[in-house]
Amino acid sequence: MQFALAALAIVAAQAAWGQDVEAGRQKAEPCLACHGPNGNSTVPLFPILAGQTARYIYLQLKDFQEGRRQEPQMDPFVAKLSREDMFDLAAFFAAQKPRPTPFKPDAEKAARGEKKAAETLCTMCHLKGFMGQNEIPRVASQHYEYIVKQMRDFKAGKRTNDAGNMASVSKTLSDGDIDDLGHYLAGLY
Amino acid sequence: MKNTTPAPSVQLLLAAAAFIVFGGCAAETMSQKGVAVSAVPEVSQAMLTAAGSQSQNWLHTNGDYSQLRYYPGGQITTGNVGKLRVKFVVQTEVVESMETAPIVVDGTMYLTTAYNHVYAVDADTGKERWHHKHKMGPVTTFCCGPNNRGVAIAGGRLFMGTLDAKLVALDAKTGERLWEVQIADPEKGYSETMAPTVVEDKVLVGTNGGEYGIRGFVKAFAAADGKLLWTFYTIPEKGHEGVWAVNDATGRNMKRDIAAEKARLAKDSSFWQRLGGGVWMNPAVDLTARALWFVVGNPSPDLYGAERPGDNLYTNSLVAVSLDTGTLKCHFQYIAHDVWDLDAVSPPILVDVKDQAGKMIPGVIHGGKTGHIYVHDRSNCNLVRFSEAMIPQENMWVLPTAAGARMLPGANGGVEWSPMSFDPTTRLAIALNLHQPMTYHVEAAEYPGGSKLWLGGAFKVIPTEKQWGRVAAVDIDTGKVVWRHDTEQPLIGGGLATAGGLYFFGEGNGSFNALDSKTGKKLWSFNCGAGANAMPISYMVGGKQHIAMGCGGNTQIDYKRGNSVFVFTVD
Q1: Is the ipTM of this complex over 0.85?
Q2: Looking at beta carbons, which residues of chain A come within 8 Å of B453?
């Protein structure tokens, strides 16, 4: 019913079955070289994980491990993760505070991106302010380069672990739209 | 007074959710300020049955078992509504989408917020008596916002469905949890946002999840201990292909390729286990017929129909089942093999209706996302008539395409979950409508296992086309729209008709309004600062009629969020 688009979920990371932030902190050590201190990556093509929803992180790790999402650089890191490891990592990164990036959005592009986002009904799933919920990721203040690459990959069929939703949406977006959205979303904080 | 310390891990978690401002979602905390509810409320079955013929209490989400949303008290009238003033405001700690219909019993109001907080407050002053936060499980999966539409009451107990797909019973006096049962698996896409309905010690609840590939149901649990009494699955294991309907309920061709569907079904019919069919809103109850009427939502995935051949029964249908056993009595499908998500959501209303021969018979009416009000014979679910369209319809039923096909109504169209009101004095059904022009996009997508939103495409609004809302009053005996009241924004939320000749409803821009229910003329308005998208109610305390409305905005249409319930009286 309700229109469908919205999905959301929340993940309340809590102590139940192994969602342990402290354990996640230990297990996250190898991740930080690319994803930055506490998941605040400084390399624009590696996503910021700090403040990401725990359920999204868990599902992405699972998808990397099981081959639904392809990223050779992730392979060695996910190969041996247990379900509990994934929960702990997800809980840890979700509990970290995201820091603003140095990216300076172009005001005109960001304004067009905001309009395009409203037309595309993005917040029905990504929620108010693109903060994410449950399995739908937070995109606010993510790296511009990463956002644009993901949208292009969805559009080109290179990333397919979205149950078709982003594939469908991104096909309605031009390269210019994607650029505008990148400026808008990277500048949200 | 009892305080339970939140689990330490909660804090962590909160950080994750911190952007959404809600406090302590993961903790089961009980805080009590002031005093506990002074007397144990004892809401008998006789009180629940007669709820529609008294004006003291508001005992059901939709007023009574018939779900009229009609308040028979008439102190506040067309003559004095201009003097309606705020008496108090209950500020909750949760700033999120608010859809609650408060329940009021003997001077105590029970209201809920997003993320399953429950508050008991003095209905005369707003003073908090207790506050219960549901301890949310680690996994929740839900579409359309972290909503809750309220509690049900029976005896001295409150009942609430939760986002982690549990049914919880609370002591109405203290807010303490009495029992909790798991309704279904949240990892498979099940969640609860509806208020339950309680009848004869059965707690009835449906499920969300039509956007995740669930198998929908209505279940009955024992009020005493949460024991499961029966389950009606909205998707039958056999026979879901139906009659291969070519036309919708109004006789329009749905452009199905039935030969291709039949060939597909011959290859694989296992999809019934993930065919969707959520039940979002309360059933109406007829104790004489000992039956329930409810409507069933869309099939999964919403827009991509190739892998779910057949009519997809009982999605997009009105369904009646036995109160005692949950067995099917009758059904009527509005749209077979839906690929537009124009499903059935708004709760049905039981009223007598005029049949085609002009004879009054027991009937049931439903306001659809198509923009029609459908009028049925209660005895067999058959359609007696449908109203003229309350909002524009164009290009029905064009099939969704990858590039997007324009059709009106858009998927947020007509009457959403918004419950209608029926005024027995005018015989008008009053409905809140959305007009949000959209394009429908389809994308082949396999079942993702229940953990991911599964639409099989997307909806997009058309930026060059204006969106708006419409209150429409329909004579159910003729199907004609008698009056219209248009608003700047699409309407979502509940309405309330009263014996004072008024109709109360809210808008996304914060306006909470009273119309003359005979003409649609606006008589009063108040802006509560956040989307007025909950469900208004009315009750008496201290000899005075009160009107209550939650203003917390709405996730689905992205209306401004808030955290308050406003209560009004005429001074």
Answers
A1: no
A2: 5-7, 125, 135-136, 163, 165
Beta strands B468-475 and B480-487 are antiparallel
Amino acid B225 reads D
Partners of residue B547 on adjacent β-strands: B538, B568
Q: How many helices (H) and strands (E) does chain A have?
A: 10, 0
Distance CA B492, CA B236 (A): 31
Q: Could you tell me which residues are beta bridge partners of residue B111?
A: B119
Confidence check: pLDDT of B561 > 70: yes
In a 10 Å sphere around its CB, with 0-12 CB exposed, 13-18 middle and 19+ buried, how is residue B267 labelled? exposed
Token couple for B369: 């996302």
Across the interface, whether the CB atoms of B20 and A91 are under 8 A apart is answered: no
CB contact under 8 A, B402 and A118: no
Closest CA to B508 of B485, B490, B526: B490
Q: Do B460 and A133 touch (CB under 8 A)?
A: no
**A1 token code pair:** 């019913």
Q: Which residues of chain B are within 8 Å of residue A12 when distances are taken between CB atoms?
A: 10, 13, 16-17, 25-26, 136-138, 140
Residue type for position B352: D
Residue A59, SS3 per DSSP? helix
Structure token pair of residue B10: 């909660």
Query: Three-state SS for B384?
Result: strand
Q: Which of B8, B137, B452 sits opposite A16 (nearest CB)?
A: B137
Contacts of B301 in chain A (CB under 8 A): 164
Please say whether the beta carbons of B167 and B223 come within 8 A: no
- What sign for the dihedral angle of Cα A89, A91, A96, A102? positive
- The reported pLDDT for the residue numbered B35 is 53
Eight-class DSSP state of A138: P
State yes or no: cis peptide before B409, omega within 30 of 0: yes
Q: Distance between CA atoms of A181 and A145, rounded to whole angstroms? A: 11
CB contact under 8 A, B459 and A118: no
Instruction: Kindly determine whether residue B460 and residue A172, on different chains, have CB atoms separated by under 8 Å.
Output: yes
3-state secondary structure of B353: strand
Residue by residue, what is the 3-state secondary structure of B422-489? EECCCCEEEEEEEECCEEEEECCCCCCCCCCCCCCEEEEECCCCCCEEEEEEEECCCCEEEEEEEECC
Longest C-alpha distance within chain B, in Å?
69
Spans in chain A with pLDDT lower than 50: 1-17
- Give pLDDT tens digits for A82-126: 999 999 999 999 999 999 999 999 999 999 999 999 999 998 889
Q: At what angle do helices B9-16 and A83-94 cross, to 10 degrees?
A: 70
Distance from CA of B530 to the nearest CA of A (A): 14
In 3D, which of A154, A160, A158, A162 has the Cα closest to residue A181? A154
CB contacts, 8 Å: A16 with chain B: 137-138
Q: Which of A70, A103, A87, A95 is nearest to A27 (CA)?
A: A87
Q: Looking at CA atoms only, how far is residue A106 from chain B in angstroms?
A: 22
The answer to whether B99 touches B193, Cβ cutoff 8 Å, is yes
What is the sign, positive or negative, of the torsion defined by CA atoms of B75, B76, B82, B85?
positive
Please determine, for residue B435, whether its predicted confidence score (pLDDT) is greater than 50.
Answer: yes
Query: Which of A7, A96, A120 is facing B453, going by the closest CB pair?
Result: A7
Q: At residue B230, what are phi and psi to the nearest 5 degrees?
A: -160, 160
- Asked if A133 and B298 come within 8 Å (Cβ–Cβ), the reply is no
Mutate to test the interface with A, among B5, B10, B13 (most CBs of A within 10 A): B13
The helix or strand, by DSSP H or E, that contains position A32, with its residue range, turns out to be helix A32-35
* Tens digits of residue pLDDT in B241-289: 999 999 999 999 999 999 999 999 999 999 999 999 999 999 999 999 9
**Which one-letter amino acid corresponds to residue B240?**
H
